[in-house]
Design goal:
Length: about 425
């Protein structure tokens, strides 16, 4: 088995991984490598041909391939080693990565520090437990996106999309533009679960129906999807009987959320957060295992890819520091309080200024972010689909901490 030594190894070559690898090299790491299981770098952005990328990072409106191409170019310029079509089998707590590829065979990498950036995967029909048969024509929105944008196939002519996630709404527009008919987007919540801009640009602008507070109760068809039955639900998520609606269709796309890809994280003994489903990290993006850092959607699902890249860069800077001998100590716990669901980081070392990212439980017109009762920020128009953030200054910590040395974050409705 081939053995390799590296200063920093990055697992995953998407937006977070490429940003991490480039920043690690720029920050002084001599040997940096990327292990990627796909045939090419770029992750899901290679199939995201729509615009909306790069506004926060580059100040330009770009397509997914345009955005990621800039980082691939930098990877090549910096001579960062890439291991393509390579599957990571395990990671040990002492930072040994075991992987296998068709070209190299079985190999191991001993790293000074590791950055996890495996991204996330889509929830499937199995996660939803929708009754009905198992006909052809049921697939995730991301799979449909690849079929249309990369492979050149249209999955169907009459489509119903379950869930109003961003990929689902973008595919509603894409299928419409390709001459298909989108019968509707069915959302179980009383609000859209994607970004407002996608609701406006992909659904409203094209007259595609959005069924809020509706559940899909059955998928019909034997060999091929023939239709779905949807029904309204009340505020307690109970089905309202007697007013079901049958929608004929030949394709069902699922856009019902993402799950961080953390199976190999568990092999290193990394503790996962019960809400985000990603690793518990501090503001340095270090997991509970010293020297193993994580960034991007593998930690918590982001809205914008620009922030995913920035998280990768932050993790890389810390990884380089660790590989050069610096160690980090978690001092203060960060917890979710009133009206807050997913939150990160979950710890802070207290060494520097940092940012807390969170999501709210319900839409709020005027919100106020508080930590242990102290007001830090006012926000207009927030909802669960959009990540919020608040900056915390190092000099504020002592005055904010409660008696348990915790930072409890809450979002109050001050409408």
């Amino acid at each position: 088995m081939k053995h390799i030594d590296m200063d920093v190894v990055v697992i995953g070559g998407g937006a977070a991984g490429l940003g991490a690898a480039v920043r690690a090299k720029e920050a002084g790491a001599r040997k940096v490598g990327i292990i990627e299981r796909a045939e090419q770098l770029g992750g899901v952005l290679t199939q995201c041909i729509h615009n909306g990328f790069g506004l926060a990072y580059f100040g330009q409106d770009m397509s997914g391939p345009e955005y990621i191409h800039r980082f691939i170019t930098r990877v090549n310029e910096l001579d960062i080693e890439t291991f393509m079509e390579s599957m990571v089998l395990s990671i040990t707590p002492d930072r040994v990565v075991t992987a296998v590829s068709r070209n190299t065979g079985l190999f191991s990498v001993k790293a000074g520090a590791i950055v996890l950036s495996m991204g996330c995967r889509e929830r499937t029909r199995g996660n939803l437990v929708i009754p009905g048969t198992r006909p052809a024509g049921v697939l995730t929105a991301g799979t449909a996106q690849r079929l249309v944008n990369i492979e050149g196939y249209i999955p169907g002519r009459r489509t119903v999309i379950i869930g109003s996630g961003d990929i689902g709404m973008i595919m509603a527009r894409r299928l419409y533009l390709e001459g298909g008919r989108v019968e509707g987007v069915v959302e179980i919540m009383p609000y859209c679960s994607g970004l407002i801009r996608n609701e406006n640009q992909c659904l409203i602008d094209f007259g595609i129906p959005l069924y809020l507070s509706h559940a899909t109760v059955r998928i019909h068809g034997n060999d091929r999807v023939e239709g779905v039955t949807i029904t309204p639900i009340d505020s307690e998520m109970n089905i309202i009987p007697g007013i079901e609606k049958y929608i004929p269709c030949d394709t069902v796309l699922l856009a019902v959320g993402l799950i961080p890809e953390n199976e190999i994280s568990k092999s290193a003994g990394i503790v996962l957060d019960g809400v985000t489903k990603g690793p518990v990290v501090n503001e340095k993006m270090e997991t509970g295992v010293p020297g193993i850092f994580a960034a991007g959607n593998v930690v918590q699902v982001y809205d914008l890819v620009d922030y995913v890249t920035m998280a990768g860069e932050a993790a890389a800077e810390s990884a380089v520091d660790f590989s050069q001998g610096k160690r980090f100590e978690n001092k203060y716990r960060i917890t979710a309080g009133n009206n807050v669901t997913a939150i990160g980081p979950q710890w802070t070392t207290g060494e520097s200024d940092f940012q807390i990212r969170m999501r709210v439980r319900r839409p709020i017109k005027k919100a106020e972010i508080r930590i242990n009762g102290q007001k830090l920020k006012r926000v207009l128009g927030t909802r669960p689909s959009e990540m919020m953030s608040v900056d915390v200054k190092q000099e504020q910590l002592e005055s904010i901490l409660n008696k348990d040395k915790e930072l409890q974050v809450e979002v109050l409705d001050v409408s």
